[in-house]
Amino acid sequence: MNTAQANPALSQLEDIVLPEQISQLPIAPGFWILALLIIVAIIAAVIKFNQHRRYHVPRKAALAEFELLNISSSQYAVDINTLLKRVAMSYFPRAEFAKLDGELWYAWLGLRLPQNEAEQLSELLKKRYQKNGLTDQESQQLNGLTQSWLNKSSRFSSLAQITPNTPSKQHTEAACSQ
User: Fold this and answer.
1) Reported confidence tier of residue 178, pLDDT bands at 50, 70, 90
2) Is the pLDDT confidence value at 126 over 50?
């Protein structure tokens, strides 16, 4: 006997229909937004890294040139001052920093160092045109201060952040050194 004849309800059954396979696409909108945010974050990080690297290229070039300076030279303080001035002009308009000298220049240099080191640097740089110049110990001290000034990787401060203590003195020193 046939099963269909034994139970007429079985003859009305249809074959099992399997459900459609679940697809991985389209992904839910939340995942698309998350993927987009991750891509934007990666692009922003790469751009920021490249800007940071490009910003410090002149400072790193100055460090390389600093290593080539002769510390025993009688012109060592002049060479250091020239190097620091070139670094400043790499980051800011030439018109602002080319003429800068005296207390305003030392104050700007001091923004990258602790107060006591800034004072030492300015005192040593003031000796660059004196008859006696720098002693060996002062040259070593200037070398260390310059190296720490150049090694500091923070962004440079603008001239607007310093206020000269004695503007008339600064102008007379600048006039004398030109």
Assistant:
1) very low
2) yes
